[in-house]
Structure to design on (307 residues):
């Protein structure tokens, strides 16, 4: 490869790296003055068991968020739960922001222990700056199996 | 003939228009994403191509990288290098779309901010067009003379 082509590639590479570094520094600086700032480490929700979910339900100190799709939610859900399916994207979280407040404790669940929709929805809340977000891993399946209070409504 | 543009001026004029068009698109894309990093993080997570531990750093860097590259495409002595950056971005975006399609993921491309939903097919077409334009701009800005040495910008 000719010297000219090497010089060209080196010049492109140097500019690319410089632009990446400058962008990263400026991005971190901008993030430091933004409120709420984006946490550098991707936040992970806390996983809770059935007894914790039940205690929160009885104490009425948490809002249950059902991450399943609307028709399934309407057929039956934990008493008082709000439906926010994964498919609604982050726009759904933004809509709930003003209604709930970012300090509100949230307990998010989906259909069964293996489903991941609750984790995805929980992470959206965490990314938006919610401080108290938990995932009830057992989900609807475990809640229903324990014959705990449910309701079916639109 | 009055009003006629000489043939040898057509190509430089088209190149300037293409360069400014490319810069405008990436300036818009950068600013549209700059102020809503949470939505962008959510989108990037869906593509599953950036390690989770690096997603937020990537999200903070990408919009400014687009803006810096777009500005350098308009002003300063680094137009060629800026065009190269845009080529890399287009290849990156197309790879992400291809990877998502191969994995059967259906994701709306919010390439111009959270409110700009585009299907993956539309996003691929748009990125291919932008890639072609950026390659043309890069090639024209290279200015390698017949002798082989690259001249100054």
């Amino acid at each position: 490869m000719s010297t000219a082509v090497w010089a060209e590639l080196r010049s492109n590479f140097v500019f690319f790296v410089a632009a990446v570094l400058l962008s990263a520094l400026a991005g971190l600086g901008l993030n430091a003055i933004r409120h709420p700032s984006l946490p550098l480490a991707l936040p992970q929700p806390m996983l809770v068991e059935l007894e914790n979910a039940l205690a929160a339900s009885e104490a009425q100190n948490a809002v249950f968020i059902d991450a399943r799709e609307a028709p399934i939610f309407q057929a039956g859900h934990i008493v008082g739960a709000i439906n926010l399916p994964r498919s609604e994207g982050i726009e759904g979280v933004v809509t709930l922001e003003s209604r709930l407040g970012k300090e509100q404790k949230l307990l998010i669940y989906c259909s069964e222990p293996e489903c991941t929709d609750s984790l995805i929805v929980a992470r959206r809340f965490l990314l938006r700056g919610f401080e108290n977000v938990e995932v009830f891993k057992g989900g609807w399946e475990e809640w229903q199996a324990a014959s705990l209070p449910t309701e079916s409504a639109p | 003939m009055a009003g006629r543009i000489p043939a040898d001026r057509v190509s430089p004029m088209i190149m300037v228009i293409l360069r400014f068009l490319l810069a405008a698109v990436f300036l818009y894309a950068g600013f549209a994403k700059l102020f809503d990093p949470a939505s962008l993080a959510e989108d990037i997570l869906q593509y599953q191509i950036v390690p989770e531990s690096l997603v937020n750093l990537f999200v903070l860097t990408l919009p400014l990288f687009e803006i810096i590259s777009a500005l350098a495409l308009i002003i300063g002595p680094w137009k060629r290098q800026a065009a190269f950056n845009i080529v890399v971005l287009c290849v990156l975006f197309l790879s992400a779309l291809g990877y998502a399609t191969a994995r059967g993921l259906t994701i709306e491309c919010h390439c111009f901010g959270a409110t700009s939903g585009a299907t993956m097919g539309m996003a691929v077409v748009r990125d291919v067009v932008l890639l072609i334009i950026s390659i043309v701009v890069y090639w024209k800005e290279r200015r390698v003379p017949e002798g082989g040495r690259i001249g100054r910008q």
Remarks:
- Chain B touches chain A through 37 residues (CB under 8 Å).
